[in-house]
Amino acid sequence: MDDGMDELLGEFLVESFENLDQLDQDLVALEADPANLEVLKSIFRTIHTIKGTCGFLGFGTLERITHVGESLLSLLRDGAAAVDTEIADGLLSMTDAVRAILVEIEHTGTEGADAYPALVAELARLQERAESGGEAVLPAAVPAAAPASAEPEPAVIDGPNGGAIFLANLAPRPRPDAVDVPEPGGEPELEPEPGTRVGELLVRDGAAAPVDVAVGLIQQEGGDQRPLGEILVDAGVVTPEVVSDTLEAQREVKSAVADATIRVDVGLVDSLMTLVGELVLARNQILQLVSSTPAAAGEPAFMSATQRLNLITTELQTGVMKTRMQPIGNVWSKFPRVVRDVASQCGKQVRIEMDGKETELDKTIIEAIKDPLTHLVRNSIDHGIELPEVRAERGKPTEGLVLLRAYHEGGQVNIEISDDGAGVDVERVKAKALERGLITPVQAAQMSDRDAVNLIFLPGFSTADQVSNISGRGVGMDVVKTNIEKIGGTLDVQNRPGAGTTLRIKIPLTLAIVPALIVKSAGAQYAIPQVSLLELVGLSEDQARTAIENVQGTPVYRLRGNILPIVRLREELGDEPAPEAGPATIVVLRADEREFGLVVDEVRDTEEIVVKPLSPHVADIAAFSGCTIMGDGRVALILDVLGLAQRAHVIGENRERSGAPGAGVADDTEGPTEALLLVQVGSEGRVAIPLSSVDRLEEFPAGALEKASGRDVVQYRDSILPLIDVCNTLGYTPDYERDASQLPVVVYSAGGRMCGLVVDAILDIVEDRLTPTATPIRYGVAGTAVVRGAVTDLLDLHAVIRAADPDFFDRAVPADATTGSLSHV
Amino acid sequence: MSDPRQFCTLYLGEHLLGVDVRRIQEVIAFQPMTRVPLAPSVIRGLINLRGQIVTALDLRDRLAMPERAEGERPMNVVVHAAGGAVSLLVDRIGEVVEVGDSIMEAPPETLSGVARDLIRAVYKFEDRLLLELDVDRAISVGGALLPV
Question: What are the C-alpha distances in Å from A460 to residues A380, A455, A649?
Fold first, then answer.
């Protein structure tokens, strides 16, 4: 094929793929609203275009399929038949076939061997059925759809002057251009071009009955010169407001068609983006030079030129970035079809609503989230929304709702996928995870609901009892999560048992240029993307020595009562420890929902950095995600916060969220390690509590104790904290010799309720493998293990709390209600 | 007999090495570079080459030769590679020579260990030997291993 043909073919493919996306959307819309002539026309046009071009390019199969499709569509358009599920199915299959052939053409240049005889036959059958008019049911609401050929007896209405007028005469004739026949009563100031007519719109919106519109039209035929809207207003059928609204809507329909856009090659935009990146770097270098050269600072003309360069670069950067921006609606447009297909496969009724379609994202990000989003939508329908009969039993409308929302917030894009289904069944999730050996019974018992919900992100996890076509193969949520994290995003689940689930994705606007914090460690500069940055804690020389507690090799820092695991960047990167204890800074970071502190030598500045990929030689080093060129021309490495945290074992490896301290995930080879809080209870009890269940560590003076309903409480952060004496509950020997003036308390919270466990002393925080060696003999003890060489009881937190307050979990806010039944360990 | 080939010669200790000129993007003087912690020692750092980020490999380390003397600055021989440009740090650059197959021999037995794998052939000059470097093998370190 010569170049001209190649180019033509390329354009044909690009255009056709775009059209197909629109087609999917249109067909689903049409099924919901068979009377929408505008949509029908748009579908007809699309197929007609494809058919015309492929005939020219010599693609016979494609032409044959689109030809029968077009014939069927023309019947629909002319009102000879209405769209029903069967026809919609047929047309959607046609779209699929066309897409498959186009993909084949794209890859091989030919149509492939499949001639789709079954599809052609089916479309032909539907066409025949439509022609015969036998089963065709017409939507009564649309006068314009009244068929001329299918109705032997035209409907008759008495005209104002006593004469009978055939309604059918007002309907479009069954010829191709019939739909464009100027409406007799069209608004004079609007051109009588295509576009939905006022009467149709009024009927569609339910503002006027078809018969009223028909009467109005008859009056016009009878010589009435007034516009239709006015006739209806005068007749008292509709209010003037409704008519003007409708006219407004009519105008919008028309203007949407004429968008002024040009088609630009993505490669060109990408190379522009690269160039702008270079310009930003050069700008940074100049700014740095200017600020460090006193002679330059004394030259006002040079300074102002620098300022201008700075401003223009920033604007150019924004502008070029905008050209890569696409509304998220481009991805979402596929979802009505997805929802329709998945719902019908599952036998469910689901409606999709979208909010914030126009929210814009960088093209690369749009590409990256396409598949994860599709998966989440499918999941919502398959796992979230219940069967219609179940929903009816639960007092919900039989039709489920999947709501997609997108909005900008704080330089990031939030995307939410909500459903009003059953929510995540925490117990079932735990049971499944147990069954698959992903967690141990002890972990299941101790796991907070939040951690339990997050089990769905474990590789190999699936709650589906049967592997369905749609989901349940266990290669779902972990991949989704990984993909979203790859582009610097986060994924968060909000579970409302019985009422639905919301998945919230937060992603950066762009990947190419990101704001970053520049830090120094062992003489080198590193960039930390600001998305992971929470706060900075400055430590003076004295504090640097004492504030970081080193408990048996696990450094921690107490940040406002919270225990923050510490990672020293020098140590992690294999550099020598800082020669002498000078001041240091803790950069508080969040990775995978967990916070940790990174100790660096020095914090420099924040800077917009241009992210460049690492060469394959160093790309496999988990601590770095990329590199950038700094203002001084040196290369700086970008720290991969997640990778760093995993290297340092602050969070679990393999990106298993619940493998984080507290809910270690079973490992085939050596068992999980888990961060444990070791406390002393009574005179000699050594008890371990998973650190993940610990909210805070507090110490109250004994004098702060008060009584409420016969129980010890303290006032704590504007509320009342009930206290539980662990020693009493577990039946250990009390330590009478202990200094009782201060009470060390482990604060636990679940479902918005808190309680404090009074212990005798906080001993240590350790990271250890948890392999219970003995069966529990004591109530409230989940097992016994050797931790750091000493026999240690593993606290069954739930049992202890329930022993003191039987309905602690039941009274917790509804989201946590299921935890109450957690006693099977 | 095939056409004579052109080699850029470079010095590494007492060895004279040759790299096919078609593989060479450019030769530049020593550049400041950013060390990559946790990377193998052969990876000396990253260089900003007019906005292009180039990984620098120390050819002495790669050939298991003793380290360069303190204060001696290596030269960068930047070669084209699959994952972007790579710089080979060498002691000194020689010249471009043209060699024919007639003086080619298999690598001598005296070459040992890793060096043997990285030398494709030996060209006998009157006064000394030119060792032809297998560039692809030489840069196959760290995360960028050649498919075996």
Answer: 18, 10, 22
Q: How confident is the model over A534-570, as pLDDT tens digits? A: 889 888 877 777 788 776 567 888 888 778 888 989 9
Helix axes A37-57, A3-32, angle to 10 degrees: 160
Higher pLDDT, B110 or A823: B110
Higher-confidence residue of B144 and B28: namely: B28
For chain B, give the longest Cα–Cα distance.
48
Distance CA A391, CA A398 (A): 5
Indicate the residue type of A539.
L
Query: pLDDT tens-digit profile of A227-276?
Result: 777 777 777 777 777 777 777 766 555 444 445 677 788 788 888 887 88
Q: Report CB contact under 8 Å: B86, A281.
A: no
3-state helix, strand, coil split of chain A in percent (to 5) is 40, 25, 35
Strand partners of residue B7: B20, B97
CA distances from residue B64 to A139, B13, B58, B111, B120 in whole angstroms, order as listed:
84, 12, 10, 11, 17
- Phi, psi values for residue A72, rounded to 5°: -65, -45
Sheet containing A635-639: give its strands across: A602-610, A513-521, A524-529, A635-639, A624-629
- pLDDT score for A569: 92
Q: Do B83 and A615 touch (CB under 8 A)?
A: yes
Please state, in angstroms and rounded to a whole number, the distance separating the CA atoms of residues A706 and A542.
38
Q: Which of B48, B139, B142 sits opposite A618 (nearest CB)?
A: B142
When pLDDT is averaged across residues A812-822 and rounded to a whole number, the result is 40
* B55, closest residue in chain A (CA to CA): A615
Percent share of chain A, pLDDT over 90:
6
Q: What is the DSSP letter of A26?
A: H
B49: contact with A, CB 8 A cutoff:
no
What is the value of ipTM here, to two decimals?
Answer: 0.90
In tens, the pLDDT along A167-182 reads 333 434 344 333 343 4
Reference A83, options A24, A19, A29, A23; nearest CA is A29
The span from the first CA to the last CA of chain A, in angstroms, equals: 71
A623/B142 Cβ within 8 A: no
In this structure, the strands spanning A360-362 and A412-419 are: unpaired
Q: Based on C-alpha coordinates, what's the Rg of chain A?
A: 34
**Distances in whole angstroms, Cα of residue A18 to Cα of each of A147, A309, A332, A357, A794:** 32, 39, 13, 17, 60
User: For A670-707, what is each residue's pLDDT tens digit?
Assistant: 445 677 888 888 877 788 888 877 877 788 888 888 88
Separation of alpha carbons A146 and A78, rounded Å: 9
Cβ contacts (< 8 Å) between A281 and chain B: which residues?
Answer: 51
Are A611 and A626 spatial neighbours (Cβ–Cβ below 8 Å)?
Answer: yes
Question: Residue B20 — pLDDT band, cuts 50, 70, 90?
Answer: very high
CB contact under 8 A, B143 and A618: yes
> Chain A within 8 Å of B78 (Cβ-Cβ)?
no
Q: How many C-beta atoms surround the C-beta of residue B62 within 10 A?
A: 24
Is the Cα torsion angle A637, A643, A648, A651 positive or negative in sign? positive
Is there a contact between A635 and B53 if contact means CB atoms under 8 Å apart? yes
Q: How far apart are CA A501 and CA A497, in angstroms?
A: 8
For A218-232, give the DSSP string: HHHHTT--S-HHHHH
Query: What type of residue sits at position A567?
Result: V
Q: Distance between CA atoms of B116 and A319, rounded to whole angstroms? A: 54
User: What are the φ and ψ backbone dihedral angles of A642, each rounded to 5 degrees?
Assistant: -65, -45
In this structure, the strands spanning A781-787 and A719-725 are: unpaired
Q: How do residues B90-107 score in pLDDT, each as one tens digit?
A: 999 999 998 888 888 877
Q: Identify any residues that bridge with A674 across adjacent strands, giving them in sequence order.
A: A768
